[in-house]
């Protein structure tokens, strides 16, 4: 197994999958809060711009090097996910109201940066003795 600075290849893939699940979760919660359908097509239509932004963020941050780092990895991924997602939504004629941008900024920040902060805290906790 490939080991990179204490994180295995599986850990890197796991971090990417968690990020993607969080972005899709953001889309699902958003659709539910607006009483929109939770069809696969509907969730995909909401999530794909932010998933594209997530990919840009992972590449831009070279997140595979330090996938759980809050800074700069988590912050770069958060900002790229938000900005690219909003630009793609705007280009596609989807809503980019100020209230949505604020909610997306806060929610994606909590999810993408907060999850890394939580992971960092959990990794620093001493292992309980059995």
Biggest sheet strand order reads: 1-2
Tally the helices: what do you get? 5
Helix content: over 70%
Indicate the proportion of strand residues.
under 5%
**Tally of extended strands?**
2
Mean pLDDT: 92
- Number of spatially distinct domains: 1
The biggest beta sheet, please? 2 strands, antiparallel
Radius of gyration: 16 Å
What sequence of helices (H) and strands (E) makes up the elements? EEHHHHH
- Give the overall silhouette: globular
Separation of the first and last Cα atoms: 28 Å
Assign the structural class, choosing from mainly alpha, mainly beta, alpha/beta, alpha+beta, or little secondary structure: mainly alpha
Low-confidence stretches: none
Protein name: DUF3054 domain-containing protein
Organism: Agromyces bauzanensis
InterPro entries: DUF3054
Keywords: Membrane, Transmembrane, Transmembrane helix
Describe the structure.
- It is a single chain.
- It is globular and about 45 Å long.
- A two-stranded antiparallel sheet has the order 1-2.
- It is mainly alpha-helical and 130 residues long.
- A hairpin with a 2-residue loop joins strand 1 and strand 2 (7-8).
- The protein has helices at residues 9-33, 40-61, 70-91, 98-112, 114-124, and strands spanning 3-4, 7-8.
- Helix 2 (40-61) crosses helix 3 (70-91) and helix 3 runs antiparallel to helix 4 (98-112).
- It has 5 helices and 2 strands, in the order ββααααα.
- The mean pLDDT is 92.
- It has one domain (3-124).
- 28% of the residues are buried.
- It is 73% helix and 3% strand.
